[in-house]
Amino acid sequence: MTDACRLLARLVGQPLRTLTYENPNRVLRLEGGHAIVETQKNPSGAPVPVRWVQDAIDGLYRDGELRVNKATLRHRRTAFVGAVLRELPDVEVLTKPQRLRVTR
Hints:
Number of domains: 1
Strand order of the largest sheet: 1-2-3-4
Low-confidence stretches: none
Structural class: alpha+beta
Number of helices: 4
Order of helices and strands: HEEEEHEHHEE
Oligomer: single chain
Helix content: 25-40%
Mean pLDDT: 95
Largest sheet: 4 strands, antiparallel
Distance between the termini: 13 Å
Radius of gyration: 12 Å
C-alpha cells in the first residue's frame, strides 16, 4: 500500500498539476502531519492534512477507482489530492466524470 507521507516527501518541490484545469500546486514541505502546499492563490503555502491524501489513496486502491470531488473526498482540497494521486505510477486520469483509476 502506498504511504502518503513517503509519496508527499518524494514530491516536495515538484510541480503538480490539478486534474481539471492543470493549475500548478507544489508541496513546499511536510510539517506536523500536514503538507504545506503552494498554489496560485496561496504562494506562501497552506496546510493540507496528510490524512486526507492517505484516505484518498486507500479508497483508490480499495475500489480501483476514485471520483475526485468534494462529495466523495469530503473536504475542500480535492484538486491538490487529485494532483498528488495522479503522480502514482499505476494510476490514470479519466474524465466525464473526473476520476482516477488504478491500471494494474
